[in-house]
Each structure stands twice: as structure tokens, then as C-alpha cells.
UniProtKB/TrEMBL annotation:
Name of the protein in question: Mutator family transposase
InterPro entries, per database record: Transposase_mutator
Keyword DNA-binding: yes
GO MF, any single term: DNA binding
GO biological process: DNA transposition
Amino acid sequence: MSKSISNIDWMNQLENVIREFVKEKLELIMKEEIQTFLEMEQEGTSNRRNGYYHRNLDTQYGRIEGLSVPRDRNGEFQTQLFAPYQRHTGWLEEASSGCIKVA
């Protein structure tokens, strides 16, 4: 029985590592997005970065807590990764629509 407990611990650690990796990559993508947004779309304006806000996002890899989403002073930046009030990625809808098939 102790072997199954260590397997569960190992799986939990693996899931945590995967979630942390996904979180880091999402934050990196959003940092690049806001940099491009400010350089290309806001050129010639006084708009600039204005810190981050934090949110949770449910993904196929589990819940990512405290995701740092960058913001700009004018409030015009919106990441392309998810909608403003979206709390889970589209995999949930895809999974549920795949289960219900109408003949």
C-alpha cells in the first residue's frame, strides 16, 4: 500500500510541475503580447505598462492560480489567450460537445 501512496505523491508532484510550466509559458506569451501591443499599436501615445492583475484559469492541466496578466495604463490591452472574464479554457466545451452527439 505504501507503494501506491508514493505513486500518488509522484503524480501530484508531476501535475504541479506541469501546471507551473504552463503558467510560466502563458505569462511569457502575455508579456510578449503587451510588448508588441505597445510597440506596434500604441506607437506615438503615452500608453505604457501598468503592472499586473492576478486571476485563476482552469485548463486541461488543472487550475492555474495567480496567473499574472499584464495591463496597460489606458486599459486597452487584451490578451489573445482568453477572453476578459473567461475562467476556463475552451477544452471544457470541446469535451462536453464531443460527448453529446445528435443523430
